[in-house]
Specification:
Length: 193
């Protein structure tokens, strides 16, 4: 499967009930050769309307967080645990996450990322371990197949509770150091998106 075919098939997905209320499937954004994959929770209202992940207020904060460690959307890949907006921004149901997982698995197979960053509890519980405790375990590295994986507080949580930002800054710096250690081209001065 290549990116073009995967995207085309994903945009036509009707595997769960979220297809009935969505405006757009939010496939993902970034470099198709990224070494670092960020995984959020699910599209919100703006993402649903625009078809791109993290374009609302939380997305602006995510861009600022990336900038702090010399990253931007063209150097990484950003996707979500579910590709369609859960109504009223409720948590995605386990069955919706299960129905959607194979799209992200296929994206991961194409990317073969060295590092995965879960944004928030929902993503960390799905991709790190079901009993993941974000308040205790954010910033810690775990092994996940060929990749190393960690979780940051979700940018929306940082908007609600700015007191968590200093810890997140430490986690971001640890991420930057890990990228320098294990990635080959993420910080190249010339790169293609
Ligand atoms: N929150 C998420 O988890 N993902 C998005 O794409 C937007 C907001």
């Amino acid at each position: 499967m290549d990116w073009t075919t995967l995207r085309k098939e994903c945009l036509a997905c009707t595997a769960c009930g979220l297809c009935e209320t969505r405006h757009n499937v939010v496939f993902g954004v970034g470099s198709e050769t990224a070494e670092v994959l960020f995984i959020g929770e699910g599209p919100g209202e703006q993402e649903d309307l625009q078809g791109e992940p993290f374009v609302g207020r939380a997305g602006k904060l995510l861009d600022d967080m990336l900038k702090m460690i010399d990253l931007d959307r063209s150097r990484i890949y950003i996707a979500n645990t579910v590709k369609c907006r859960p109504p009223k921004n409720r948590d995605p149901l386990p069955e919706e996450q299960a129905a959607c997982l194979h799209w992200l698995t296929a994206q991961r197979e194409l990317l073969r990322p060295k590092l995965i960053v879960c944004l928030g509890r929902i993503s960390a519980m799905r991709f790190i371990k079901p009993d993941f405790r974000i308040t205790k375990e954010h910033g810690q590295w775990f092994r996940n197949g060929d990749a190393e994986i960690m979780a940051l507080y979700h940018p929306a949580a940082l908007l609600r509770d700015p007191g968590k930002r200093p810890e997140t800054f430490v986690d971001l710096k640890a991420l930057q150091a890990k990228i320098r250690e294990v990635c080959e081209h993420t910080y190249d001065s010339v790169h293609s998106a």
